[in-house]
Amino acid sequence: MTKLKYVRGIPIPDAPWFIDKNVEDTLDLVPHDGDIIIASYPKTGTTWLQYIALQITSKGELIPNFDECMYKYAPFLEASGTSVLDTMEKPRIYKHHCPYDKVQKNGKAKYVYIYRKPEDTVISYYHFMYELGYDVPAFDEFFEEFLSGDIAYGHYFEHVLSYYEQKEDEGLLLVSYEKLLLNKKEEILRIAKFLGEEYFQNLIADDTLMEKVLERTSFDYMKKNLEVISPNKAENAQKKLNFFRKGVIGDGKKALSADQLERLKILASEKLRGSDLLKEWIQE
């Protein structure tokens, strides 16, 4: 079983870069007016969405390296802590993986939540944990942990529902990974419109800017230009991670067994009964 620790009921990776106080401070943080909070379950497109938000709000200028993004320009709060926010310029952009009901709210902040088909999420999650150097079990056991929720950040369907059930909230934008990949320009414009009319107008008035944002947030560009070094690094033993692995739809259907896919479908039907998500994720 993957090693976990629990902070206020949330399972967190038992790793040195996840300090309990940072997680607690993330849960206690009351966003400022105008803050942009990117929330997600791990491996559903979070980093991609971070860079999209940075590109939109900087008019295509800000494309920091991975460490600068994660700890300075759009910090991952459970790892960076919240004190980094004190020196950030507005709009402050930051991310976390916490469920909706565990974090503080501000009606004048902007929340963007990205979600992804479960079969692709579990495959991406497994490879990511393995790449980071966690003591992960064989995939079949990891899959069982994913189904049961005995995994970092808990049960996937419950996490997604915690945000999806708030979809009528004007301060929350839900983003489908699949729709973002298939209709990228339209979805980026939708995100820009949500973040602020100024950002939307900048993009529709300037084709060159729009093309720059599309290029710099493409999978190929990010994989080539954003180097990621493992936080497990030892002196003189740094490891470059394959952080941006594939960025595709349907990898899970190829990798999971027929039985695993059926069990995932049954669980989704139980957990998401009555939700529009079933129409998105399960094609009858």
Automatic annotation (TrEMBL):
Origin: domain of life: Eukaryota
Keywords: Transferase
Family annotation (Gene3D superfamilies): P-loop containing nucleotide triphosphate hydrolases
GO molecular function: sulfotransferase activity
Residue span(s) of domain Sulfotransferase: 33-275
Family, similarity comment: Belongs to the sulfotransferase 1 family.
Protein name as catalogued: Sulfotransferase domain-containing protein
Organism, as annotated: Caerostris extrusa
Gene that this sequence comes from: Sult1b1
